[in-house]
């Protein structure tokens, strides 16, 4: 396997606080790589840098060997690197189906020029997008709520919809930031099953920040442990759980490594 994402020697400080400290990681293509670490370890900061939401102080991020350090989230979206975001306020007033149909980039329907001159193209494209949205809803088991406003969905259903949005485009790498938080066990099972299927059947690579160790244990291999803005250790979850350094890093924080 080759690296699809490579983070090289990233540094980031907020004022005098060094949060990411010469951090280097590799995410292998086709993997579901987990990232764990005590509160404040710098996991979200590193995610934000990879996803183009936060500038680094120094260092490089590569996607398939291409330097993407200064790409915007929109540019990364077009290159197939996405992160899930909570459904924004304005989207909560749209149905689950409409939320999915909003996603595709370069939708010809958005262009007045196309609407005037190529109405059939717009119609074809809309039919295609609608069809894909229906397939995504079936895949994520939300067909029964397709006409429900996103704001009325349960926490877990919203997470499924967020994952579904990544399926409306041709994603290659998806960054998941604590998607298990507040999701009930049944829907969490659905969510994990979908991540596994997207990985196995559609070749998605995932980088997952998660505090839920059951989810990390079931889905992720390898697991990277971040502490004080650096990689402390990387390996299979069983090695991580028994690693003395990791146990000590968690000791005294709100989380435990078991
Ligand atoms: N925009 C910011 N301005 C100042 N300090 C920040 C900013 N963002 C994060 N920090 C600080 O950087 C440190 C790392 O935060 P980060 O959210 O990356 O950690 P984390 O590993 O994701 O933690 P958690 O598991 O609690 O989400 C923390 O001390 C945090 O307070």
UniProtKB/TrEMBL annotation:
<dbReference type="GO" id="GO:0005524">
    <property type="term" value="F:ATP binding"/>
</dbReference>
<dbReference type="InterPro" id="IPR027417">
    <property type="entry name" value="P-loop_NTPase"/>
</dbReference>
<protein>
    <submittedName>
        <fullName>ABC transporter ATP-binding protein</fullName>
    </submittedName>
</protein>
<dbReference type="GO" id="GO:0016887">
    <property type="term" value="F:ATP hydrolysis activity"/>
</dbReference>
<keyword id="KW-0547">Nucleotide-binding</keyword>
<dbReference type="GO" id="GO:0005886">
    <property type="term" value="C:plasma membrane"/>
</dbReference>
<dbReference type="Pfam" id="PF00005">
    <property type="entry name" value="ABC_tran"/>
</dbReference>
<dbReference type="InterPro" id="IPR003439">
    <property type="entry name" value="ABC_transporter-like_ATP-bd"/>
</dbReference>
<dbReference type="InterPro" id="IPR051120">
    <property type="entry name" value="ABC_AA/LPS_Transport"/>
</dbReference>
<keyword id="KW-0067">ATP-binding</keyword>
<dbReference type="InterPro" id="IPR017871">
    <property type="entry name" value="ABC_transporter-like_CS"/>
</dbReference>
<keyword id="KW-0813">Transport</keyword>
<dbReference type="InterPro" id="IPR032823">
    <property type="entry name" value="BCA_ABC_TP_C"/>
</dbReference>
<dbReference type="InterPro" id="IPR003593">
    <property type="entry name" value="AAA+_ATPase"/>
</dbReference>
<feature type="domain" description="ABC transporter">
    <location>
        <begin position="5"/>
        <end position="253"/>
    </location>
</feature>
<dbReference type="Pfam" id="PF12399">
    <property type="entry name" value="BCA_ABC_TP_C"/>
</dbReference>
